[in-house]
Design brief:
Helix content: 10-25%
Low-confidence stretches: 1-19, 471-477
Largest sheet: 8 strands, mixed
Strand content: 25-35%
Length: 477
């Protein structure tokens, strides 16, 4: 039943938004970021935890009163989509949270949607972003829908090999509500692998601890728990928390006030076991220290190595640049493929993670590991390769969520590789960068979108860029 309109709709709506009013919305198309588009009294509302076609009651965000658009969370479904299913994670279920008078934790905003429909919605968002920001049609570059990963759980659970938690004032493991400082205690994390869930960190009292990060290698190596003490914590808080964790778990105390140990701005102190985990991918062994970046889906490293090496097609003697290389996930298989007569430049900005890459590649002298900003090191790397009589035949580009940006795109184009394999976790930045490449003589020849983040709105894109010529053209010319 519709609520009666107030006498002064505009003024009342502003007051209601400031107070977190509940409004009735007919939900429309998906939008990037895990939202769906609705309208209320002429204003656009981006609503989460809903589905296209549904009629929902949604609570407006209290801080959106004067914004051009509003944000809201569905709290009751009046007319449900046939694609709606019971949410597999109680603390992330918006409807159950509303019944409890709390907020849902972030990190599983698509959990109420069947997996096939999740992938269809992600595909719609990808195609829209590529068209609007990249100026091209997804079908024309071979987009065939969002692909499931082999061996996925039927409900999209048990895939996360990394998990991060906050700790509330009572010393309970907790997570933040979406875009909020509100901490919600958790008693499970179904998206995490069994190795993480079996630790039952939510049963461990954690007074004096502000944050907990857990890494559990997909291949079954030892689990690492990082404990970040609160700024005002009594001395020894991390040590006391470590003693409460199960035997055999590696534990380290981390400082992150200015940044992480991986980016050279924090520190790690071993409390038990070691400060790193052992990972494997495509037959190669890797060491990843502390908070160092590693693909979080248990199957992602193998899937992405296969996809990227297939696009680059490295041959013995080739020179390849691996940009934003992390701990060397792509560097090692590329170096093995080009052989001792070839070259792979592995460039990573985070000092700690780059040290891991250097250790991981120590038996492959053709892998030249460089630490620093890509835009500062790519030209010197290309010049150095030139002095060795080589030019880059391929570039692997795996930037952070914000994308590569114009400066990096320009330098890659100047290096004139025959193939660029672009790995992205954000369709908007991918589309913007692809448009920049188009202006510099490269076209998107093919693209795959992988569902490496089930039950979330996130997706992973792997695209091949080649020098412009016959093929799909931008609709912007």
């Amino acid at each position: 039943m519709k609520h009666p309109a107030p006498e002064d709709p505009s003024a009342a709506s502003r007051a209601d938004a400031a107070g977190g009013a509940v409004v009735e919305l007919r939900v429309g198309a998906p939008a990037h970021g895990g939202h769906f588009v609705a309208r209320h009294e002429g204003r656009v509302v981006f609503v989460r935890h809903s589905l296209p076609g549904e009629l929902v009651r949604a609570r407006l965000r209290a801080d959106d009163a004067s914004a051009r658009f509003w944000r809201a969370d569905a709290v009751e479904v009046l007319e449900a989509s046939p694609d709606r299913r019971p949410h597999p994670w109680a603390e992330a279920d918006a409807l159950r949270a509303a019944e409890r008078g709390t907020l849902p934790v972030g990190g599983a905003e698509f959990g109420h949607i069947g997996l096939s429909r999740q992938r269809a919605l992600k595909g719609e968002v990808f195609a829209e972003q590529l068209h609007r920001l990249g100026g091209m049609d997804a079908d024309a570059v071979g987009f065939a829908g969002v692909e499931a990963v082999d061996g996925e759980h039927p409900l999209g659970l048990g895939w996360r090999t990394r998990a991060a938690f906050s700790v509330d004032a009572a010393g309970r493991l907790a997570m933040n509500a979406h875009h909020s400082d509100v901490l919600v205690p958790v008693k499970d994390m179904p998206l995490a692998t069994d190795a993480i869930r079996s630790l039952k960190p939510w049963d461990v009292p954690l007074p004096g601890i502000a944050r907990v990060e857990i890494a559990a290698p997909a291949a079954g190596g030892g689990v690492l728990v990082l404990l970040i003490a609160a700024p005002d914590a009594p001395a020894g808080s991390a040590e006391r928390a470590a003693r409460r964790l199960p035997d055999g778990v590696s534990v380290a105390a981390a400082t992150q006030a200015a940044g992480s140990a991986a980016d050279g701005k924090g520190s790690l102190r071993r409390l038990a076991g070691r400060t790193w985990v052992a990972e494997e991918a495509a037959g190669h062994a890797y060491r990843v220290t502390g908070e160092g970046f590693w693909q979080i889906h248990r199957r992602a490293p193998d899937v992405l190595v296969e996809a990227v090496t297939g696009l680059i097609a490295p041959s013995p003697g080739d020179a390849v640049a691996d940009l934003y290389a992390g701990a060397g996930l792509f560097t090692l298989p590329l170096a093995a493929a080009v052989g001792p007569e070839g070259l792979v430049y592995s460039i990573e900005g985070a000092p700690g993670t780059s040290r891991d890459a250097r250790r991981n590649a120590h038996e492959l002298p053709q892998a030249r590991v460089r630490q620093g900003r890509v835009e500062r090191l790519l030209r010197p790397a290309a010049a150095e390769a030139g002095r060795d009589g080589k030019r880059f035949s391929g570039v692997v580009l795996d930037p952070p969520r914000t994308g590569a940006g114009k400066a990096v795109v320009r330098q890659i184009a100047e290096a004139a590789p025959a193939r660029i394999a672009y790995v992205s976790c954000d369709p908007a930045s991918f589309a913007r960068d692809v448009a920049d490449f188009a202006r510099r003589g490269y076209r998107l020849a093919s693209v795959r979108v992988l569902d490496l983040y089930p039950n979330t709105h996130h997706l992973e894109t792997v695209g091949l860029l080649v020098p412009s010529g016959p093929g799909p053209a931008s609709h912007n010319g």
